[in-house]
Amino acid sequence: MKKLVIMIGPSPTARGGIASVIKTYYEHGYGADGNTRFIASHVDGSMPRKALQAGIALSQFLGLLLRGKVALLHVHVASGVSFWRKAIFIRTARLFGRPVLFHLHGGAFCDFMDNGLSGWAQRLAVATVAKSTAAFALTDDSATWLRERAGLAAVEVFPNPVAVPPAKPRKRGLRDVLFLGRIEDKKGVFDLIRAFAAVHAARPEARLVLAGEGDIAQARALADELGLGAAVALPGWVDGAARAALMDEAAVFALPSHTEQMPMSILEAMACGIPVVATSIGAIPLMLSQGKCGILVQPRNTVDLGASILRILDDNILADTISASGLARVRSEYMVETVLERLARRYKELAA
C-alpha cells in the first residue's frame, strides 16, 4: 500500500503568509509525483465555517492513518489558535507512530509560548512541539528555541519560496511606496504613515499604497490628520493581477513590522526588483544580506524610515543597485524550484 506525505495548513486560497507559501508550492509542482496530499485545516470565513473545516480536516487525516496511508505529517504552525489546531494533528500522528515535520511560521511564536502561555497550558504546548520528529524554522532564533526549549535535535533553518517573474528593466519615474500586509500596529503601518509625512513633504508627487485588510479606518484617519489625504491609498486586500499591478508601479517596498519571521511579501518584492526598506527583525537581516540587498531600520524609528525611503526615491543608482542585488539574492537562495528540491530530500529522509 502506497503511503503519502500529508501536509496540513491553511487553504492556498486563504489570506496570509502560510497560505502564500503553500500556494507557491502547488503552483510550481508540489504533489505532482503523487506522493503527497494536502489537507486544509483552515479557510477564511465565519467561525462556524472555520470550525467545520478543521473538523473535516481531522476526520480526513484520521481516516488516512487508520488505513495505514500516512508516511509523514508535514504541519505548518504559527502562534495562537493556529498552534492549538495543529497540536491535535501532531499528537494524533504520534499516537499512530508516524513522524512529524514541524514547520514553524509566525514572528510571535516564541513569545506566545514563553509569555502568552503559563502553567499547564504552557507545559502541554511545549510537550506537543517536543513530540515532533524534526522541525523547520525561518530564523536562527526560532531554531534555537526549538532546540533548547522543546529539545528537538533535527532542526534546520528552511527558507520560504518565491517565484521569480521574467526579468524586465525597472521603470523610471515611479513614485509609489508600497506596503502589503495586514493594516495593524504590529506591522508598523502607523509608523509608516507618520514616516511618509516627511517623504511627502520632500516629494509631493509620492504616494503611499497600503494594501491589506485590518484597521483601515484608523489608517485613513491618521493620514487625514497628517494632511496626506489622497497621497495615501487604501485599496484593501489585493491578490493576483491586482497585486502584480501594484508591484509594477512601486518605487519602494516598505515593511516596518515590529515582529516577523520571513515575510513572503519581502521575497515577492525582491523577486520583482523592488528596492526594500524594512525593519531589522526576524529573518529580514538575513534576507537582505545585512543591508546589502535593502535598507534596514529599527522598529518604530519613523525618522530613519522616512529618510531611507527618500534615499531610494532620490537616487536612481542606489535604487538600481539594491534592485539588482535583491533579485540576485532571491535567485540564489529562495527560488521555489530550489526550495522544493530541498523539501523533497527531507521528506525522503524522514519517511524512510
TrEMBL record:
GO molecular function terms noted in the UniProt entry: glycosyltransferase activity
Entry keyword annotation includes RNA-binding: no
Acetylation found in the keyword field: no
Keywords noted in UniProt: Glycosyltransferase, Transferase
Cited InterPro entries: Glyco_trans_1
Residue intervals of the Glycosyl transferase family domain: 172-323
Pfam family, one: Glycos_transf_1
Gene3D superfamilies the UniProt entry points to: Glycogen Phosphorylase B (3.40.50.2000)
Family: Belongs to the glycosyltransferase group 1 family. Glycosyltransferase 4 subfamily.
Identification of the protein by name: Glycosyl transferase family 1 domain-containing protein
Lineage: Bacteria, Pseudomonadati, Pseudomonadota, Betaproteobacteria, Burkholderiales
